[in-house]
Structures are given as structure tokens and as C-alpha cells.
Design goal:
Elements lengths: L8 E3 L9 E3 L2 H10 L7 E5 L5 E10 L2 E11 L8 E4 L6 H11 L4 E6 L10 H15 L6 E2 L3 E2 H6 L6 E5 L9 H5 L6 E5 L7 H9 L3 E4 L8 H15 L5
Parallel strand pairs: 1-3, 6-7, 6-11, 7-8, 7-9, 10-11, 10-12
Antiparallel strand pairs: 2-5, 3-4, 4-5
Helix pairs in contact: 2-3, 2-7
Length: 245
Amino acid sequence: MRANYRMQRLFVEGALHDGAALEATKEQFHYLANVLRIEEGTSILAFNGRDGEWRAEISLPTRKRLMMTAVEQVRPQPAPSDLHYLFAPLKVGRLDYLVQKAVEMGAGVLRPVMTQHVQGKITSLERLQANVIEAAEQCGILSIPDVMPPQKLTDLLSDWPRDRRIVFCDEGHESQNPVPVLQAIAERKLALLIGPEGGFSDEERQLLRSLDYVTAIPLGPRILRADTAAVAAMAVLQATVGDWN
């Protein structure tokens, strides 16, 4: 069931059930009461990543408090996405974009990966989580992807579960069309690996190509920026072997 995009959506921490009353946080109060100037009795959509999506009615018991009371469930909680999204951090701004688009396009787990040519860094997992929640609020997503701590690429590969295939974007691939390569993959437990702005080093590319649980794909005839490549790769993977298919 698709989301209702005409109603304001809000992520909440508390449990959602019939009659559940949740108080807005300070940030939520400011946004709803001062920015949107929402009125008492207005309905919004609330979700917490566990209990589905609920229509909730707004009440303003005092000038500085806003309550949301769950009235009815409008969408049940779906199974979370099983797609792991592995990415080399970009610079601030472009990193926010990268995370938001990954959530919009169906990533279930976000894992920052530190490579040799990485130019960005993860200064705050809380900021990443905030971007995840914002993207979920805006795009009708009910399952909140997990955000993992950064890890070196070599460490990640050494401990990687062999039943989950890693697909990585290789600018040195001999072909231009990723679709036949993806269609040949038998596994359905997948991870997508996006490299840094400077690309993978020769050593990293050699290592990835040597592993039998890793598949290299091209992304067409043009050189793409890392954030563009991330969106393109997610789209072609989802359309070929993911949940668009």
C-alpha cells in the first residue's frame, strides 16, 4: 500500500496502538506549531518503524505542549528491506544527499566504508540517522534502515558473510551495460558497494575482483560523480534484481 502524500508524516519514538498518546519533542513542537501552524484536531500520519503507520489527531493542552493521539492504523508494518548499502563517505552536503537517496531507493542497512581514497568522514552517526529519518518521513517509508559505524574496507571484507553477494561499481569494467551482469546473479541477499570520489585504488579493485562473493558491474559509458553513481547503481539494481522487479 502506497503512502498518503497529502498528509504530514512524522517519525515518533514511542509505541503506536489504538489510543496511544505521544507528546511531541521540542523540535517537533516547533515544526508543527510554529512552522506549519497546525491546529488542534488536525490529523497527521505517525510511524515508528515498528508498528506501521497511524493516523493521529493533534491536541494542544498548553501553549508549549503538543500531543498526538493514535486513532487508526492506515498501513501495516512491512518487512524491512534486506539490501545492504555500503558507501565511502563523501564530503558534508553530498554525504547527506547520498544517505537520503539510499533510503528513498530502498536500502535496509547503511554501512559507511573507509577506503584508501575516501575524502569524507563520519563525524556523527546521529546526523546520519537524522537524515535517514527525514528521508523516511518525506518518502512514505515505514521501515527505518539501520546505520552502522564506519569500518575499513579490508576489515569489512574479511568478516563478510559469504551468503550475501557484494555488487560494486567498477569504473574499469570491460563492458558498459550492468544489466546482464546483474541478471546472472543467483543470490537474493545482496549488498551494493559505492566507492569514494577518487574511485577505488588499484589494490582495492584487485582485492574485490579476487573474491568469489563479489561482483563488479559497469555503470555505462560515462564517468559519474560518486553521488550520481550511487543513485544510478541503486536504480539499476532495484530494477533488475531488487524490489522493483
